[in-house]
Amino acid sequence: MQDALRRFKADIFQALAHPTRIAILELLRDGDLSAGALIEKLGMEQANVSQHLAVLRAKQLVAHRKVGNQVFYSVRDRVLIDVLDLMRIYFHAHLKESLGMLDELDKTQEALR
Amino acid sequence: MQDALRRFKADIFQALAHPTRIAILELLRDGDLSAGALIEKLGMEQANVSQHLAVLRAKQLVAHRKVGNQVFYSVRDRVLIDVLDLMRIYFHAHLKESLGMLDELDKTQEALR
DNA sequence: GCTCTATATTACTCCATTCGAATATTCCTA
DNA sequence: TAGGAATATTCGAATGGAGTAATATAGAGC
Q1: Are residues B13 and B59 in the same domain?
Q2: How far apart, in whole angstroms, are the C-alpha atoms of residue A101 and residue A105?
Q3: Which CATH number goes with the domain that contains A23?
Q4: Which domain holds residue A17?
Q5: In the prediction, which pLDDT does A93 show?
Q6: pLDDT tens, A48-107?
Q7: Strand D nucleotides below 7 A of a protein CB?
Q8: Does the model's pTM come out above 0.90?
Q9: Is the CB of B46 under 7 A from strand C?
Q10: Residue A1 and residue A52: Cα distance in Å, rounded?
């Protein structure tokens, strides 16, 4: 049972473990977006984005509703946003030591979010 | 740059995306433990645990110090524990819909942590 | 220095994830 | 109902992650 909980957590983290999927969740932070809008904002292949959305859907991190031709996605639980926010604190605290990007980091604080 | 940051985040989540590594972090929740102690508590192969520790070390999620023959591990940032706690909230909210374990869930509330 | 214990690393195999390309599905509109 | 737009799914190739077994390293004590 303990173990099932850990598998569950691991699954969620697995779903979060891709730059594109993180980007998607961050884009959905302030409200719904259609798949098309996501594709445009991400500037990536339609099929690729759609596959990542499928992962997020499978793990139930996002909800989706059809509106005519389009499909609108949203973050299913604000707690996920809280997790991302907490991780942002972590990232700010440790990015410098973790990567060799000190210079760029200092120069582009605004890029951090 | 945005992208490098997201890759960094994804890497951290990737490191968290395994039940054994989550178990390790939870075991380290209340203080340092030696690799041997972790192996014993986890009841897993030495090499296997050591590899998972290597992942956590590589991503800098844990700190380690040598004491004679042994190596003691600790969580490098409490924020990670907070994240795991948040995930528990998420778990409680969604497990029923997410997994097919309704019955056990209701019967073993105390096992939840 | 030799041996024992604790831990890490390597090699190999198996399974999962990722991407692009092509194809399928669904819904709208003429 | 045919065509077009939006989105999803499938396939194959490449890459990456996980587990086991075997081997290597490092420190302690004799």
Answers
A1: yes
A2: 6
A3: 1.10.10.10
A4: 1-76
A5: 83
A6: 999 999 999 999 999 999 999 999 999 999 999 999 988 888 888 887 665 554 344 444
A7: 4-10, 17-23, 26-28
A8: no
A9: yes
A10: 29
Number of domains in chain B: 2
Count of alpha carbons within 13 angstroms of residue B8, beta-carbon side: 24
Q: Which residues, numbered 29 to 48 in chain B, qualify as contacts with chain A under a Cβ-Cβ cut-off of 8 Å?
A: none
**Residues A68 and A81 occupy one common structural domain:** no
Of B97, B50, B45, B99, which is closest to residue B70 (Cα–Cα)?
B50
pLDDT reported for residue A104:
42
Q: Is the pLDDT of residue B106 over 70?
A: no
Q: Does B77 touch chain A if contact means CB atoms closer than 8 Å? A: yes
Note whether B63 and B27 are same-domain residues. Answer: yes
Task: Mark whether A56 and A108 lie in a shared domain.
Answer: no
**Residue type at A91?**
F
Instruction: Look at residue A1 in the predicted model and tell me its pLDDT.
Output: 66
- Please write the tens of the pLDDT for every residue from B82-104: 999 998 888 888 866 655 544 44
Chain B touched by A86 (CB under 8 Å): yes
- Both A49 and A20 in one domain: the answer is yes
Using the predicted structure, report yes or no on whether residue A9 has a pLDDT greater than 50: yes
C-alpha A11/C-alpha B18 separation (Å) is 8
Q: In this structure, is the CB of residue B45 within 7 Å of any atom belonging to strand D?
A: yes
CB atoms within 10 A of CB B27: 16
